């Protein structure tokens, strides 16, 4: 592969990263700004899905699938269980914001500036050596020499469809619990 083609891949990955990061930032802002708790949980699904997409860009497919299964599939169902079964008011609620919320804006700007300074000044124009695919191991091995690819193949290959099916079963259970618990 020519160096020019490798550069094009990096540019495409950077553009993809920027697009996904923009969706994640928008979703995160919606999580903290919406007045509906259920909508906030659903916007959190967008953010967690963006994290999984970032893992795919980083060529960590196993971690991306784990992100979808564990966080989006299980944790969000538990969040929704908790929201729906607490008998909290569903919909917009007034008076939830702290009266000193405006103080958070300059603090956030200062922290963002400090973080940007540290990130930009930390490397001092150093570059990370990029190894070719042939120069680095493809998998990390554990104490018993079991690779992550081997574990993923043994666990997810025969059980991938049941894992995704279980997500829908949990969703149906959550909806059933909501119907039974609410008397509206």
In words, what does this structure look like?
The chain has one domain: Four Helix Bundle (Hemerythrin (Met), subunit A) (Up-down Bundle), CATH 1.20.120. It is built from five helices and no strands. The N terminus is likely disordered.
What order do the helices and strands come in, and which of them pair?
Blueprint: H1 3-33, H2 37-57, H3 61-85, H4 104-122, H5 148-181
Could you tell me how far the N terminus lies from the C terminus, measured between alpha carbons in angstroms? 63 Å
CATH hierarchy, class: Mainly Alpha
- Strand runs, count: 0
User: Largest beta sheet, briefly?
Assistant: none
Number of domains: 1
Mean pLDDT reading: 76
CATH topology: Four Helix Bundle (Hemerythrin (Met), subunit A)
Second-tier CATH architecture: Up-down Bundle
Q: What spatial form do the alpha-carbon principal axes imply?
A: flat
Helix content: over 70%
Strand percentage, roughly? under 5%
Low-confidence stretches: 1-5
Q: Supply the helix-strand structural class.
A: mainly alpha
Number of helices: 5
Write down the secondary-structure element order: HHHHH
C-alpha Rg (nearest Å): 22 Å
Brief write-up:
The protein is mainly alpha-helical.
């Amino acid at each position: 592969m020519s160096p020019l083609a490798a550069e094009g891949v990096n540019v495409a990955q950077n553009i993809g990263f920027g697009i996904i990061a923009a969706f994640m930032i928008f979703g995160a802002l919606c999580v903290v700004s919406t007045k509906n708790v259920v909508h906030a949980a659903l916007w959190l699904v967008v953010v967690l899905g963006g994290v999984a997409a970032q893992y795919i860009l980083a060529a960590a497919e196993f971690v991306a699938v784990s992100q979808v299964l564990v966080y989006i599939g299980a944790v969000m169902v538990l969040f929704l269980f908790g929201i729906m079964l607490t008998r909290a008011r569903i919909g917009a609620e007034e008076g939830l914001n702290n009266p000193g919320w405006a103080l958070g804006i300059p603090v956030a700007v200062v922290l963002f500036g400090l973080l940007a300074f540290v990130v930009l000044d930390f490397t001092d124009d150093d570059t990370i050596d990029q190894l070719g695919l042939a120069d680095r191991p493809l998998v990390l091995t554990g104490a018993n020499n079991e690779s992550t690819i081997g574990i993923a193949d043994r666990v997810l290959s025969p059980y991938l469809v049941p894992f995704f099916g279980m997500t829908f079963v949990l969703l149906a259970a959550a909806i059933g619990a909501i119907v039974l618990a609410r008397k509206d």
